[in-house]
Amino acid sequence: MNVQMLTIHTLMLPLKQPFVTHSTTIHEKPVVILELTDGDGLSGYGELVALPDPFYTEETYFTAKTMIAEVLWPLLHQAFPISHPKELQRVFRHVKRNKMAIAAIESAFWDLYAKQSGQPLYQLLGGTKQNVQAGIAIGQKQRQEDLFHAIQEAIEQGYKRVKLKISKDNDLQLIKAVRERFPSVPLMADANSAYTLEDLQQLKQLDEFNLSMIEQPFAYDDFLDHAVLQAELKTPVCLDESIASMNDLKTAIALQSCRIVNIKIGRVGGLQTAIEMVAFCQEKNIGVWCGGMIESGIGRAHNIAFATLPGVDLPGDLVGSSHYWERDIIAPEITVHNGLVAVSSHFGLGYDLQETVFAQLVKQTETLTV
């Protein structure tokens, strides 16, 4: 692939409005974009999706940036030349965890490889869809009417499902109120590990609200307790933070800890592992959707390409650029029409960097050479 240089761009993107879960509130998102450049001047882009705090996984954007510069890039340097992005699994096979750091580099390799091949990324991955279904995640609101307004907007924009953040203090009251106001909207609840098995009876009461799934009710390593819960619920359990590797996925399915899996490219260590997970889920009849991490357009474009795969059949967290950002860093910006995102047929990710906007938002740049 004749890689010559890796440039790490750190940006700070203000959110239109704070995104609130039971454990954190995000007002602005540090966005780290990796630019991989070959000898002909072509660039491939990947996004580091780690958050400022280690509340979702152990990684933060700062620790992951350090890992990329101090460990992963030197390993790549020793392994050059690289001829295909799949080879990165071998290069990084001895690195423990650090999935988001690895995924950011691997994503940039995939984009560059697709551009060098003159093909759209989604086709190289094995994707077949021309449009992908978009769902929306709505953070917690202080006023119920604000939440109702956000849901009504999502319905009017055609989103295929609405995800609400819940906690032990608000779940039944919140879901009941939303169901009464919106009796037919496809609705799921995301718990972000807010519960334990002691809350079993409380969670069972959610069965009456016809939810499409309850996402990650227990801690990331509670495979056994999730299995107990799923056996007691009619509503499918979806695992998110629990699934960071193929072994995690095989464990969850063997124990019947879930019926649905949310696959996030960053959380599982890259597109190649994500593709392998989808294939395994198809064999085991497990539902799959593509989750999001409040990405910029670069990360979202990778998600769209992944969501075109056969087997990624449930609506994903694929909101348009304008949902989170006043200005995205790609052109054209991602848009949702009637609940669908059109897949770009241009080679690579299918989107260009908005150079002027990008330059205005960059706070720090570090260049690593071969």
From TrEMBL:
Gene3D superfamilies: Enolase-like C-terminal domain (3.20.20.120), Enolase-like, N-terminal domain (3.30.390.10). InterPro entries: Enolase-like_C_sf, Enolase-like_N, Enolase_C-like, Mandelate_racemase_C, Mandelate_racemase_N_dom, OSBS/NAAAR. It is an enzyme of class 4 (lyase). Keywords: Lyase, Magnesium, Metal-binding. Its cofactor is a divalent metal cation. CDD domains: NAAAR (cd03317). Its EC number is 4.2.1.113. Residues 144-236 form the Mandelate racemase/muconate lactonizing enzyme C-terminal domain. Coiled coil: none annotated. GO terms for biological process: menaquinone biosynthetic process. It comes from the Bacteria. The keyword Magnesium applies. SMART domains: MR_MLE. GO terms for molecular function: metal ion binding; O-succinylbenzoate synthase activity; racemase and epimerase activity. This is o-succinylbenzoate synthase. It comes from Aureibacillus halotolerans.
